[in-house]
Amino acid sequence: MKKLLILAIVAILIIAPLAGCSATTGNREKINIKLGVNGAEHQVWDYVQKKLAEENIELEIISFSDYVRPNLALAEGEIDANAFQTIAYFDQFKADHNLDLVSIGNTILAPMAIYSEKLKSLDEVKEGDKVALPNDATNGGRGLILLQSAGLITLKEGVGLIPTIKDVVENPKNLELIELAATQIPRSLADVDIAIINNGVAIEADFSPTEDSIFIEDASSEDAKPYINIIAVKSKDKDKEALKRLVEIYQEEATKEVIDEVYKGNVVPAF
């Protein structure tokens, strides 16, 4: 009888830990992701946050007021990911600061476009037409690349992302390229035949890049690739499942619909 009692106690001691282990694995541990963004508006990320919560992944959205701190905070481990910058900016910032960061997914493109009050398409561009483009290096260079994509000019090979007017090697229609302050271009639209306006300035002037332009950057093109926004993480974290889910949910068709609703076509999904 005593022997049977001892065997019964031993059996209970063996079974109890196994039962406890099963209960623990049955409940997925909550995972927290700290995501750095720029500015206070993050409606699309609010949607992603709700979707991740359904999988017991808590997304904490942290707003920064500049374009320097989010990458430094990521490198220093204060946040787990950030989403605020283009590929071109990211690559340059990494090189300048020697940071071990990597992109794990594309988000949106804020497209630059060509506008006109006189022409309905680029087919109507004539000999000697006037073209307004931004006079700052970044937007001006991007504008020239856009003109090349549109087939209106050819740039010297190897000029990179910031070509200048001096880098134009072919201008078949002898277009007059007029450099203006970016914010002045919408007000000067009546004085030129076509104008290149960057996304933010166009929106402030009540233009819709996708509806009001006669030519727009194609998110799937190689020329537009440097200007696509990304989700960045530390290289050592790029294979973490929770961060992969962050990207996967952002790139779902339902999120595309949220992007269209929030931005009203002013930016386009780039995935």
UniProtKB/TrEMBL annotation:
Keywords: Lipoprotein, Membrane, Palmitate, Signal. The keyword Oxidoreductase does not apply. Its main location: membrane. It is found in: Membrane. SUPFAM superfamilies: Periplasmic binding protein-like II (SSF53850). Residues 1-22 form the signal peptide. Coiled coil: none annotated. GO terms for cellular component: membrane. It is a lipid-anchor. InterPro entries: Lipoprotein_NlpA. A lipid is attached at residue 21 (S-diacylglycerol cysteine). Belongs to the nlpA lipoprotein family. PANTHER family: D-METHIONINE-BINDING LIPOPROTEIN METQ, LIPOPROTEIN. NCBIfam families: MetQ/NlpA family lipoprotein. This is Lipoprotein. The lineage of its organism: Bacteria, Bacillati, Bacillota, Clostridia, Eubacteriales.
